[in-house]
Amino acid sequence: MAQLEVDLVAADGKIWSGPARQVSAPAADGDIGILAGHTPILSVLRAGQVRVVPADGGAPLQWHVDGGFLSVDSDQVTVVVDAVTEGSRSTTAH
């Protein structure tokens, strides 16, 4: 199964990095979902939840971010955020 390589970084360093099946984020004009094979994109993020479904099938990860941007190119997803106010594993199935 194809997967994404994800880097989530803030001004003070890397928050999370690893392989994922899916990434969703709060784009400026609505939530965006990224799967392997997504077309290249650069999007501004608004405040909201960034969610990552790990490639190993583990529980989804989520962080509340205060804005930033998301870049996708060749199954590499880079999320650069202004600030992360919390991080957790989701307890709900997605």
Automatic annotation (TrEMBL):
HAMAP family per the UniProt record, alphabetical: ATP_synth_epsil_bac
GO cellular component assignments: plasma membrane; proton-transporting ATP synthase complex
Membrane topology annotation: Peripheral membrane protein
Record's keyword annotation contains Transmembrane: no
Molecular function via GO: ATP binding; proton-transporting ATP synthase activity, rotational mechanism
This protein's UniProt keywords: ATP synthesis, Cell membrane, CF(1), Hydrogen ion transport, Ion transport, Membrane, Transport
Residues covered by the ATP synthase F1 complex delta/epsilon subunit N-terminal domain: 4-83
Higher taxonomy: Bacteria, Bacillati, Actinomycetota, Actinomycetes, Micrococcales
Protein name: ATP synthase epsilon chain
Function: Produces ATP from ADP in the presence of a proton gradient across the membrane.
Subcellular location: Cell membrane
Family under the similarity heading: Belongs to the ATPase epsilon chain family.
Quaternary organization: F-type ATPases have 2 components, CF(1) - the catalytic core - and CF(0) - the membrane proton channel. CF(1) has five subunits: alpha(3), beta(3), gamma(1), delta(1), epsilon(1). CF(0) has three main subunits: a, b and c.
